[in-house]
Structure formats: structure tokens, C-alpha cells
Amino acid sequence: MTHRPPQPPPAIATARRAVRRALTEPGGPRAGDLVLVACSGGADSLALAGAAAFVAPRIGLRAGGVTVDHGLQEGSAERAAAVAATLRGLGFDPVEQVSVDVGHEGGPEGAARTARYAALDAAAERHRAAAVLLGHTSDDQAETVLLRLARGSGARSLAGMSPRTGGYLRPFLGLDRATVRAACELMDLAAWEDPHNTDPAYARSRVRVEALPVLEKALGPGIAKALARSADLLRDDADALEAWTEEAERGVRRADGGLDAAALAELPRAVRTRLLRRAAIAAGCPAGALTAGHVAELDRLVTGWRGQAHVDLPGGMRGRRVDGMILVTPPLR
Fold first, then answer.
1. Binding-site residue set
2. For residues 235 and 231, what is the distance between their CA atoms, to the nearest angstrom?
3. In the chain, where the domains are located
4. Residue 320 backbone phi and psi in degrees, to 5
5. Binding residues for ATP
6. Considering the domain 10-219 in this protein, what is its CATH number?
7. Which of 103, 102, 82 is nearest to 39 (CA)?
8. pLDDT tens for each residue of 190-234
9. What is the tens place of the pLDDT at every residue in 29-47?
């Protein structure tokens, strides 16, 4: 009689399948490559580490880990050291504990995120990693969509996080937080709960602790999953519009770099405004400061042209219409 090996609990099996799927997608890591797991010590990233430690060697990959100490709380260095020890205990090699200085630009959450990704980028480059795995779940996706919806963002922004962004992979983006945390517990990995996750000083914490529960109570269960599904659908739409924009740019871009206003006017607004936003950023406007209002004013140079002198844009730039062209340049002197 053949004895089958014991099967892992469903939550663990689900986490492992998600990691395997992410790591075996076309264009992903190849046999012998190193993949790094970004681990904060929270339940989501620990579950990711545990699943990756099981899956990676079985598909011919090497697994390493990085934990980033933001230095924002007392004892953070000691906690980061404990996380690094856990990663080594899972068999990861290399393992790095990286300390960062968090600035102020973009608010506390944005500044911490900027510092964290810079550290992860540098670690991936140092170790020549083929990919960095992040532990975001569908609940994180829902929170991201709500935050961006409150800012009046467009389709690309409301599409939320992608399962793959450059060298970053998010295997758990299709799994809910409850499943991932159950997997962490069943793997006997001791998670640390960051107090910032429930601190009302942070917008994401307010969405997580206050806004989503209110929506669930008012509209019924499943709001987080519905928001994550909406992000998936919007991502498909945004991808299609970006492809259309790429094609359209060849027809409106003049040899001297300006955009042909008459050709722009023939395009759907969704494509036209993407082209105008691209032109502004390429000319030097900071992407984070360029709002939908700025782009709408540029669009008026195309569709509501009444001889306007210029449109003031972030970064000290100006949008102008000259000889039937839309130009974004520094102020004329």
C-alpha cells in the first residue's frame, strides 16, 4: 500500500501555490537565480518567507531575505535582528539587515516607503537578485484603492498594485489577509504587529481600522475583495489605454519634440490626456506634483484654445501652444 506524505494545512498549501505560481510565470526567475524576500517580521511577510523557503529550492531557485530597519520606533534594530535570525533559520542565504534614514518628503508613510524601496533596490543589485518578493495581500490592495480613490486618481492609479512591477513580485496579492495570517500561524512563525498598522495618525491605518469596517457594515461583507477585483479590471483597462497611447504618440509627436495639437484633438480624451501628462513629465515636471487639474489645463490648450498665454506647471515648467504645437518648457526669459 502506497503511503502519501502528509498534506499541509489548506492555508499553507494556498500560500505555497501562490508563491510557486509567481516564481514560475513566463519571464520570471530562471533555475539557479536568487530571489529575495522582503520581510518586516509581520505575519504577511513571514508567511511569504515560510512559503518561499519551501518552494524556491524545489524549483531550482536560491532564496535570500532582506529586512529593513526604518529606525522609527524604539527597539527597531533589535526587532530587525530577530527577523534576520528567523530568515536564517528558514535556510535563507544571503540575509541582510539594512538600516535606512527616513526623510520627510511625501509624509511619514511616503517617506518610509521611499527609503524602504531604495534599500530593497540596492540589496537586489548587490546580490544580483532576479526578483524581490513582497507580502502585499488583497486587503492591502483594497486599502490602496480606497486611498487613491479619495485623492481623485485616474484608472492607472486606481488599478492599485500589480502582481509584478519590474523586479518586484507580489505573490499574495490574490489572497486575503486572514488566509495569509493563518498560514503564518500554522508555520509556527512568531509575527510582530507593527503599532503603526493601527495608529490613526496614518491614513492607511484609518482606512484599515475605521473606513473598511464601516463600509462592510453599511454595504455587507466582501468590500475588500470587491475593491481588489475592481483594481484588477482597471489594470486591464489601463494597460489597454497605455498601449493605445504608445501607438498614438507616434502620430502626434513632431520632429522637434512638440505635440501636434490638431492630431491630439482627434484622439479620445483618455488617450490625449495621457500623452499630455507624459510630455509634461518628460519635460521635467515632477510626476508626484503633476495633478489631474494641471493636465486638464494642458488639455484646454488643445480643445479650448482661446489664445491663452501659458499654463503654469510644477517644477517651474510651462505648457504653451505655439504654431499648432503643444510644448512644455521652462519659462521664456
1. 40-45
2. 6
3. 10-219, 253-329
4. -135, 155
5. 40-45
6. 3.40.50.620
7. 82
8. 998 877 777 788 888 899 989 999 998 998 888 899 999 999 888
9. 999 999 999 999 999 999 9
